[in-house]
Request: fold
Amino acid sequence: MNVTVVGVGYVGLITGVCLAKLGNHVVCYDIDDRKVEKLNNGEVTIHENGLKNLLSSVLEEEFIQFTSNALIAYDNADIIIIAVGTPENSDGSANLTYIEQAADEIALNMKEETVVVIKSTVPVGTNAKIKSRIKNKTNKQFYLASNPEFLREGSAIHDFFQGDRIVLGTEEEHVKIKLDNLYSPLNIPILHTDIRSAEMIKYASNAFLATKISFINEIANICEKVGANINSVSKGVGLDRRIGSHFLQAGIGYGGSCFPKDTKSLVQIAGDVNHRFHLLEAVINVNAKQQKVLLHKAKVKFGNLIGKQVAVLGLAFKPNTDDIREAASIVMVEELIKEGAIVKVYDPIAIDNFKQIGFHVQYCKSIELCISGADMVFILTEWDEIASYPIEEYAKYMNNPVIFDGRNCILDLNNNDSVEYIGIGYSHIEKECTIY
Ligand code: UDX
Reply:
């Protein structure tokens, strides 16, 4: 099929390249000429495992092209997938400006019988508004559908091809069939539903995942006070198939471009229909506190941080991405500077993005350079390189070997007598439990 994807950010680029890999003829449209040129030359604009090879192969097979020309983008498309950003407004609601701009251009340029699919995360009812908006600008026959995405950064290509489900919200049978045909090569279960339910599934999914994270973080905070071990508790809870072990990893909370935005947006959506979403408000508040939990621990231990050398390992909001949006590192570094600490930071790939913020810190090219002379280490992202770094090396390089592990990720704590290790959710060193 001829598919156009609008917006070549994290979601649009992955969607376009993967649909091209399935044999569709894909046009990816973006207003950013520089980004379009880079992608047509095979240069990837985001860090995503496997993307460069996939992009090269679909470019070579001429299944994909990138353009900033609306006419080329829209005039031959059977399906137009809108995957533009819906950033957060100051009141927490979703900003639909880019969706509306895309809709206006589509109305002017699309051909008859086009299926317009909204993949971006949008408040319930947005599809209906966009349908009216397009109808007011054209007499052409077209159809709307909702197809939210569930891709995780760092494993987005895997998630596209091995996802748990595809959600399609449609109003016409022939649209349902057309989109079934688009996705059937994936052999992934497809849930067909109405458009509003499809819009809601996305928010409910992300809100529930965020709830799991804030829940286990609260349990971790209580474990510290009652002398329990969060790693055992998390494993014991997760063995219940009704709960599952995923998203029960305690730490300094969630970040990224989705959970923070989507949870606040869902609180707004509920508020717009006079429903106070107390539970989700609590999830958001817990997460905000959790991002600063290591700072609290450090101040309890050291009194104050004035003049203390603090090494921060990990800046990305999670491993295997260069994305720092809403990352705990931003909150933590800002607070550490306010407390008068002298901060050095390291991240395997997100350091250039972090530099854009402009903090007055020292940017290091290696773990050793970062921890040398440090009075304490804050681990904020569980990169493999950081998790597997030998614990005895800390004592070798640091002025005062104290580690605050915000992701409980240091694997090898046995036989450690050289470093003071402080994690989240247990009040003593012994971390592991054995499942017989
Ligand atoms: C998330 C959803 O997983 C995905 O389905 C949706 O499409 C987009 O939002 P993403 O934000 O890329 O994906 O990353 P994810 O792996 O979900 O992690 C989100 C945050 O939660 C990260 O900051 C991560 O460190 C944190 N997290 C995750 C925890 O703190 N504990 C966990 O157990 C899991």
Remarks:
- The longest helix spans residues 195-226.
